[in-house]
Amino acid sequence: MAEEITIKVGFGDHFRDLTVRLQDGDIAPWQPDQQLDVVGQRKPRLDAVAKVTGTAKYAYDQQPKGLLHGKILRSPHGNADIRSVDTTAAAAMPGVRALLTASDVFEDPTARYAGAEVAAVAADTEDQAEAALRAIVVDYDVKDFCVTLDASMAEDAPQVGRGDQKNVERTSPRSRRRRRGGSGEGGGDQQALERMAAREKEVNAILDDCDAVVEGSFRTEVQTHAPLETHGSVCSWEDGRLVCWASTQATFGFRREMTSNWSPVGAQECRVLCEYVGGGFGSKFSAGREGVLGALLAKQAGAPVKLLLDRSGEQTSAGNRPDSLQKMRMGVDKDGSIRGFQIRSWGTPGSGTGGAGAHNDGIYELGEIDKVEYGVRTNCGGARAHRAPGWPQGSVALEQIMNMAATAIGMDPVEFRKKNDSHPIRIHEYDLAKERIGWDQQRIRGGAANLCTGVGMASNLWFSAGGGGASVLVRIAKDGSVEVRNGAQDIGTGTRTVMGMVAAEEIGIPLEMITTRIGDTDDPQGPMSGGSTTIGTVTPAARLAAHHARKELLEVVAERKGWEVADLDIRKARVIRNDGSDTGLSFQDACLLMDDDAIEVLKARPRRNYAGFSDTNAGVQAAEVEVDMETGVVQVKKVVAVADAGKLINPLTAESQVRGGVIQGVSFALHERRIMDRHQGRMLNDDLENYKVLGSVDCPEIDVVLLDVYNGKSNTQVMGLGEPPIVATAAAVANAVADAIGTRVFQLPLTPKNVLEAIAMKKAANKPGTKKGARL
Amino acid sequence: MAITPESGVPEEQRDGVSRRTFLKGAGAVAAVGVSQIPATAVGSVGQEADVDVLGPGPVPIRLRINKTDREVEAPPSTTLLDLLRDHHGLTGSKRVCDRGSCGACTVLLDGRVVDACSMLAIDAVGREITTVEGIGTPENLTALQQAFVEKDALQCGFCTPGMVVSCTALLAENPKPDRDQIRQGIAGNICRCGTYQNIIEAVEHTSRKGGK
Amino acid sequence: MRPFQVAMPKTVEQASKLQQDDAAPFLAAGTDLLARIKEHVTVPDQVVDLKRIDGLQGIRSDARGLSIGALTPMSEVAENDTVQSDFPALAETIQNAATPQIRNMATLGGNLCQQPRCWYLRHEGYSCVKNGGTGCLARDGENEFHAIFGNKVCAVVQPSNAAPVLVAHGAMIEIQGGGKTREVAAEEFFMTPEKDPRRDVSLASGEIVTRIILPNENRTTRWGYSEAREKQSFDWAQASVTVLLDRGGRAGDHRVIFGAVSPAPLRRQDLEKVLAGDAASADQISQLQQKVGEGATPLSQNGYKVPMLQGLIAKSVRAAHGRKEG
Predict the structure, then answer these.
(1) What angle, 0 to 180 degrees and rounded to 10, lies between the N-to-C axes of helices A288-301 and A251-259?
(2) A342: which of A40, A165, A556, C281 lies 20 to 30 Å off by Cα?
């Protein structure tokens, strides 16, 4: 029964017809000529009042009766195995109700970084829990450690891992998969090495043939997520059922971790509640060791336990964006075409090697690419997905070498980008960004002046139309109340509000008449807040459920009034006819005609996306900076962010998403880095004083330009906007700083130290970049 | 375990001893209770008066919070923030850095912003404490809170109570702040989601309308 | 936080005795001490809360100058009319320090006596010459924010950004304890590790800073203060330069004090001599800049502080020269 329809896709002056085959009983996407009453309006978020009055209760704020306080003992050593843990004294301390060691719970009880979990205690008060932790006696087998990329890559570096784990391992291209019990990895890797060598030779030849080759070695630092609400949960076992108030960005994932066969918790049943989350940014997909320990302490104690990390635990153990070292060579011809690109990159994701990749070979048409990536093990807390994982650091390197290439051939950096860009939306965004940042204005650039200004540009790309995995329940009650439910969480993106807006639009009532329920795994399945796909996953289900709920209501009306159902619609809470005339029946009165208490419709999102206008959403950002040449202090004055988010549901919260991405990007560009101690292997800035997060005085003016794109990918056509805006910001700032000071700072963050050192280097050398560089 | 505001036993009934006068004549107006006075500390110093030594166990602490006197027992080492959250259930003020770096625990002490995490509750005795709960309610938002809502000056919302308190004080001290003054006024409040610009717009909007 | 007793003396003498008997730390506002207790770098069984001692708060002027009670909150100092008119450099540095919340809480006395922000010193589990052990971990460790002058024994930097301004003004620190009252010049008050690495300031056990006195004889309208830091919203200075010209209207009575680059505010008499010449000229500034790094012994990660000081001295000298004689 798949229906084929023709829709218009595109934006502005760029529309075209597209024929799509509707699937799974789906409905047609909104069309450009369609009058929408709620969608597209700037709506304050539905939970704003609770948040501004302090009445919103987060996991951190839950205080069930009899609450105990959990705390985790962490290893102070850079690298250790644990010989034994003696908890005798601790267990006898006042107020102690439960006690666990890592080896009681986890398969790997080694302490491979300073901050690794060793034991956990629950006690009547925090002070008692703290005192008990200090009474635990641990016999550590302390080993040498590496806590930085350079230390771990050094020739005689101590082994970070265990067994035959090497410190540096190639992660891409991969060897052919090892055959079980077969001839071993040698053969597979030998072939990969041969392919890599051939590729290198080929791209070297192309570069040798280019008009210009530029090269650079770029570094970015480890960035922690630093959500204001730390990781963890309040857990309570109620008649054998585990209830967790969790600070999570995956309510259903959290439940799975509590109930799966492989879970050390092994709960038969679990309900996860999470109405509010104090930030996640990618770090809260997993319940983590703290989630597991909290649930088990509560079980042992037979009382609710609050185990949310302290700030130090959060900074050291709850995830980060890996650092990067990216060595690049780019070959261009005088006409501006990029012909070849060589990349070698390294990153440290903690004691493992996966997840340190830098996305530095996307976005543009980059010619022939020869890229090899390595993961570098360090004795540090593990990386977790962090708002556009791999992209901001990749972009910092890619966009800077793009500028260097443009300079080498004497081309304007924006024209150079346009020349190598084929994105159907982004190609129209450059001039918008250029105009709004004042690209061509006269500026005081590097030289004798004390204050210099500069501009820089960078692009982003994302893939966030969403997918299957959400169901939404719409309930229209006889009293006219409407409830929309989905069990997923809203981590501050505005999902709750947008879900309500889509349902309101579809039913034909104002948003104010809708109640939304989220963050409860007893409600219908919802996605994790990841990949910027939440909105694109949840809203099509909401619209479909609302569509059918309205249809059922109109069937009741038609039947009771003797009207033709096909002639009826609901608009602005009135029942109207197709010609627009009012039937005299309000929505409320229509609801009263029901025999049942309510109409309830549960619908899943259609699984696949349609071809659409573009598979990706795109953006361009331009930054203007002012650099104090005497102190090296960089102020980002303004960032213009042009962004595409598919169909805009709520421009107010969409703008906030973009501003948030830009602010975190500026913070990454100017301030953020983890500082590890060479003496003991500990994180020295495990706080919010020395780990510097952008504040109000450093925040630039942010000019957001949102395109409203009918992309046709789903019935709501919306694309998520959490991640894309952070991709380009730091790169645009870095390019702007180079423009201002007349030399490039190859090392992020752009601190006074790094800027002053770059200026000093330039003074010392004062030589332009070489045309043809050495092999990487 | 959580002590509700109502659970405080009237002072006169506790131990049958009134402890109200122990700080008479001191600089601060005191209504702090004493318990477990260590004999070694009492009377060991000077001739003119005894030195009061509190704790380390719980002592009655009476504070004026949001225009109401409220008393609970807590160790004298308890920070104002922990007392508000854990003993009075006022969880609007957040514990984020616990070191005075982030402003999520901002409350007003006699009308001025302070980090509740970085002072002892007993040092707030006799002073007027205003938490976010005392600024406006869901049914009765202040103009500033309303502007926060309309300008979307919040995302995850965890910094929001502290921001609301800081901006309330800012407008009370300077009803017509310029942009730089607003930035400086919230320089002690970290927002990780990135709502600074929206907050500035909300304050400007409130200021233009002459509200608070 | 580890529970502790709180003693509440009503007089300075009581407080003094309490500390002498029990080695109990003084608590002024608590912004520094409570953080150290939470970090377990200070583990007192008792603290001595100074808040209930009369007479330690408030600002008053007399013939000698301005007298600031040690427990006066930083914001009150910065907002005081006389401080703003007579000692504007002090008002400005304080207004730049910390956050609005901390300025309302922290006291000027506490600000001067706070523990340096060295991340080794303020983390549990490190032992160095400052806390009873030997050596300096920053010297061959992570030292980006540490001292480039006077850093042989210990490389902490004096964290108060009011301190260099007080030194420049020849402020006197009034100290009471053990039945005695004494005054010490701000320049002598801040300890160098060579003198005593264990102590940040020259206070004996049981001694309390009671007042900070800014003598009128060293007032000047020709001042310049500049600092650089990574974050403009709440951060610690990486370096600062205070310049006072013609103090008390005495031609050639200049002060150049560096902050955040040494364990105590650093007076640079050699630079003062350069300034004693003519009005600011590009030539004079470049002469100063050339000399700024003399005596510096940068560590592996903090050599940038020398060019930073070169920039800051230019800013401060330009600012001081740009201000009219009053």
Answers:
(1) 50
(2) A165
